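Lab manual, section 2.4: Encoding a predicted structure.

Procedure: take the sequence of the chain (314 residues), apply the prediction step described in section 2.3, and record the output as structure tokens. A sample record is shown.
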Amino acid sequence: MAMVDDVLMRAERLTRRYGDIRAVDDVSFTLSKGQVLGFLGPNGAGKSTTMRMLAGVLAPDAGRITISGNDLLDQPRQAKRAIGYLPEQPPLYRELTVDEQLRYSAHLHGLGRAASRAAVEQVKERCGLTGVGKRLNGNLSKGYRQRVGIAQAILHEPPVIVLDEPTIGLDPIQLREMRKLIGGLGKNHGVILSTHLLAEVQATCSHVQIMRAGQLVYASALSELERCGQSTRLRIGLHAPPPVSSLARLPGVERVEELGDGRFRLHHAPGFAPHRAVVEQASAAGWDLWELVPEHVSLEQIFVELTLGGEKAE
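Recorded output:
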């Protein structure tokens, strides 16, 4: 558990409407130092709207955001000084070189010439940009543009870093490098990122919040979500199977699914695997056991169940 002093950002009951639609509906959470918090959800769930409100680009219709103790609406200058923001499309001038872009950003953040020079060199090193300072933004690959966008966001060493879909459109090598960079940022900052990719959260984040139709439907440490993925099903194969009712009476078994050819799926409570009972009974009763495979419920299934919220997929 994070100490209260470690809380860098607090969002309380954020709401944002577009006409009659509540794009973000009564969302509350905190971000602590050392956390990489993934906002996960399908497209249209309200993630980007939430990111824009957190960055101070969009005002909420209701609710409150405090960053490093400063209210984003009442004390915007102090609050925004504590934020680094990377929108989905990095705001780069195509005709500027990387060095010129970063020096311009440093000037906007109020850094003096000497401080600016030092900050630019430091973020270039952190973001893997040391060799591309003289190149034009317009000639950079998508991966390098994302790096320049992150470098801009962290130039002024903000405690809170907000990244909106930071890995979208990257190739596998760029993806790996970006994940490593974000993971490194998570050591000394609080990082919040939005994504619709489950694998992105698994690879990058320490905590996850799942959004559906503008609401938070799940919030936890990633380790907790992974624990939800423990086995709740056991597939067995028997050459001489008993009646289904005998399998249903095994300890912990809630439901038996017949798969044909002597194979069955035993549904059981989480953390209560009936492996031993199956082996003992099969041996004692001559069922001739030839297959015993725990089936893990994937994080994808949990994600789909949470985001569909009981609705049927189209």
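Check your result against the sample. Residues 4-227 form a domain with the Rossmann fold fold (CATH 3.40.50.300).
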